[in-house]
Design goal:
CATH topology: Jelly Rolls
Distance between the termini: 20 Å
Strand content: over 45%
Number of strands: 9
CATH architecture: Sandwich
Oligomer: single chain
Largest sheet: 5 strands, antiparallel
Helix content: under 10%
Radius of gyration: 17 Å
Length: 147
């Protein structure tokens, strides 16, 4: 709680959002077996602080029984994996919303890029990050605490 006369420093209040991607309201491109970046967020981070990185989306496949994987990575499709989940798609184009969450401790003060990736691990269909105006995809970074 902030008291009268105290100064608030941006990005220093726990739970404060420091970056967010404009919510995606249309499907990503169709993806097969090549891991592909479908969403990106860039956050101003400060050395010695911890951040919560979360991606809320609906990855699906066009073929029942396909296995797809979605991941949070640092920097790019070849960056460090922060979180990854592989799922079997039980019904064509039906998959519950997925939320990937990871914590990141900044080792430098910089603009840090985080990406969400998707690809088909097995099967024959196309993986897609589904989104619409009524089902947007969110990608946010929030300040947690001093490390």
């Amino acid at each position: 709680m902030v008291l009268a006369g105290e100064t608030i420093i941006a990005g220093k209040v726990p739970g404060q959002r420091v970056a967010s991607m404009t919510p995606r309201t249309s499907n990503s491109a169709s993806i097969t077996t090549t891991e592909t970046v479908i969403d990106t967020v860039v956050a101003p981070v400060v050395a010695g602080r911890r951040y919560a990185v979360w991606w809320d989306a609906r990855p699906v496949s066009s073929t029942a029984g396909d296995d797809i994987q979605y991941s949070l990575r640092e920097d790019s499709v070849s960056g460090t994996v922060m979180q990854a989940v592989a799922v079997d798609v039980p019904v064509i184009n039906r998959q519950p919303r997925a939320r990937l969450y990871a914590e990141y401790e900044a080792d430098a003060t910089e603009d840090k890029t985080f990406v969400a990736t998707l690809f088909r691990v097995s099967g024959t269909g196309n993986a897609v990050g589904v989104a619409a105006a009524t089902q947007p995809t969110y990608f946010n970074v929030e300040y947690i605490e001093e490390a």
